[in-house]
Amino acid sequence: MIVLWASPLPRDVVLEIYPVAGITCVIVAILVAFPISWRLQRERNRLAKTVHDLESAHIELDRRARTDPLTGMLNRGAFMSDVDESLLKRIGGAMLMIDADNFKIVNDTFGHSAGDEALRLVAETVIAGVRIGDICGRVGGEEFLVFVQATDTLSVVAIAERILAGVFNLNFEPEDGCRHQLSVSIGVAINSADQNAIAMMSIADRKMYEAKRGGRNQIAYSYGDPRASRVRLA
User: Fold this and answer.
1) Which of 12, 46, 60, 76 is buried most, with the most CB atoms less than 10 Å from its CB?
2) What separation, in Å, do the N-terminal and C-terminal C-alpha atoms of the chain show?
3) Which residues are catalytic, by number?
4) Rounded distance, CA 17 to CA 1, Å?
5) Cβ atoms within 10 Å of 21's Cβ, excluding its own
6) How many degrees, rounded to 5, is the angle at CA 211 between CA 162 and CA 151?
7) For the chain, how big is the Rg over CA atoms in Å?
8) 118 with 138: CB under 8 angstroms?
9) Distance between alpha carbon 74 and the CA centroid of its chain, in Å?
10) Predicted confidence (pLDDT) per residue in 96-154, tens digit
């Protein structure tokens, strides 16, 4: 019996070769092929890990490109793109423009860290107030947009009222023992799928300013016709 050690196999692995016709050739072939196969598998594993890491990095970059870093909501570009995609599928809906009332006072009085916390609380309330399938985004400093996949007025206004009440009832304490009242004004454009995201946002924006002029902490909405207006107080 001949005992061989074949690098790069571990030193405790040996191959036994018996000088019998036919068997010797088979074992020699294994002796040559096994290290090559082992190296190939190692390279396959390394390549698979590299591909996985690249895919994960791509997903993370895409998420960052579409996401507002403060609130985790969609940013303006991603929001508008997703809404236009829904409208292209002939999915009717309503646009809610939500703006935090007197937000400058929060920043000026308590600082920008407190302002950021207030925005996160408002964003969480908006997300909690909508349904699965609705689209939420932060599109400005203290401005948020929601695309509700519904066109019946009662359902849409109910969502807006839920957000309005949720923000008003937030327990926001920028300093210990100091509660600051938060509120939002909401403009709503209710329409079918014959408008794009920009057109709907323009109507909702006008309605939001109408709610501001009406005293804030309220909803102004339109039944498809931008001239029509209804105001509901919180």
Assistant:
1) 76
2) 94
3) 142
4) 6
5) 6
6) 55
7) 31
8) no
9) 5
10) 999 999 999 999 999 999 999 999 999 999 999 999 999 999 999 999 999 999 888 89
As a whole number of angstroms, the distance between CA 63 and CA 82 comes to 14
Mention the CATH class of domain 76-233. alpha beta
pTM of the complete model beyond 0.85:
no
Could you tell me the two tokens for 174? 């920028």
Distance of CA 164 to the CA centre of its chain: 22
Q: Give the residue extent of every domain in the chain.
A: 15-66, 76-233
Q: Identify the H or E element spanning 167.
A: helix 153-168
Between CA 161 and CA 32 the distance in angstroms is 75
Give the closest residue to 222 by CA, choosing from 195, 197, 196, 191. Answer: 191
Query: Which residues have a Cβ under 8 Å from the Cβ of 212 and sit 6 or more positions away?
Result: 99, 101, 185
Q: In this predicted model, what pLDDT tens digit does every residue of 29-85 receive, in sequence order? A: 555 555 667 777 777 888 777 777 777 766 656 656 789 999 999 999 999 999 999
